[in-house]
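pasting for ref
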Amino acid sequence: MSIRNLDRMFRPASVAVIGASARPRSVGATVLANLQAGGFAGRIMPVNPKYGELAGLPVHRDVASLPEPPDLAVICTPPATVPGLIAELGAAGCRAAVVLTAGLGSPRQRDSLAAAMLAAARPHLLRILGPNCVGLLVPGLGLNASFAHAGAPAGRLAFVSQSGALTTAVLDWARSRQIGFSHFVSLGDCADVDFGDLLDYLAADPDTGAILLYAEAVRDARKFMSAARAAARSKPVLLVKAGRGESGARAAHSHTGALAGADAVYDAAIRRAGMLRVHTTEELFDAAETLARCKPLAGERLAVLTNGGGAGVLAADALELGGGRLAALAARSLLRLDAALPAAWSHGNPVDLVGDAPVPRYLAALDVLLADPGCDAVLFIHAPTAIVDSDEIARAVVPALAAAAKPVLACWLGGDAVRAARCGRRGRAAAPPGCRPTTRRSRRCGPSCSGSPTSATRPCCWRRRRSAAKRRRTGPPRRR
């Protein structure tokens, strides 16, 4: 069905909570509390025959008692009630529902509750997210139609997950780093709305700059591929595909009820569609932070600046193995570095400042690399020494990194000695130095921060892989 009526789901003017409750820690109570706490400006209509009022809102006995058809209904009632509720909602004029309830069975089984739910929705073109999902968040609207433990700030990343546990884990991780989202969606069992639908919707959404996916299995491969190709043309699409091994595939099947399929087939399809595949949640978190904080990369030529040769070698290895490449420094840049650095410097890229580098040496080398026309981005790596305090270096270089026209990736190696430099102020693990909270009202700036040279090179590797994917889709440039 593609994006039909998804605007009712993601931009509702009113929300009905079917099964709203006063019972502490129940799904119905949590959803109602989240809707109110999120600041949703539309009408909220609790439905439950047991109550007359909840959280200061009048409660309606049933769907027929609602004063108006809700744009979106959130269902938190037992499985047997769901098909009937969907039929009532559709007849009343509702066109979108989030079914949080689990235990409806597979929609491919004709006698299942999930199949009955879809049959009830079909005559009304009512779209269903779930069942067995955590819900959805649209932070820009203050919409938190979920039983997640927390909300999210507004931003330009969209996250779509088949796993409810990963949904809440990513949400918690992102909140600790003040990373914002345009949409946060738990798909659950994908009885109706699936990856293909959401890729089509998010590709056209002006508030979404990049799309992150966690997938265990894809049921409609043709629809998914078509939507993925279209989305990847306009914005970065990164995907974690679980179930890579035989045991993981069996676990994915037991979790989602869908066959995971051969990983090699998925890998080829992902590359062909132009998406970028990451293999771990750590890589997904790195991607989210980089996309949220870092200026867009115009190319993949990376200059590495480090106070330790070993760290530079690790970065160069990771860059090459990941498909990226080191920038070839211009002759003028090499002459300027010769003048600014001691004779023992590396005389190439990576640029090794030598371990005793004071603050002026860092600033001089950064100035040269940021001005080099053959360099698209700079990776700044610092390992702690007893010569110069890491926090002192951070206070000096972060303003220069944040003001740079080119993207700068920062890597503070170590633990306690660099914690203040990495966090920006002592005792607070928030945004990396030079970064601001990535809300809709704050522009992206400053360096994306990492804890290892390997992970710090990933953005350039992703940029090169995305460029290669675009060339595969469009072919080589035509000669004039």
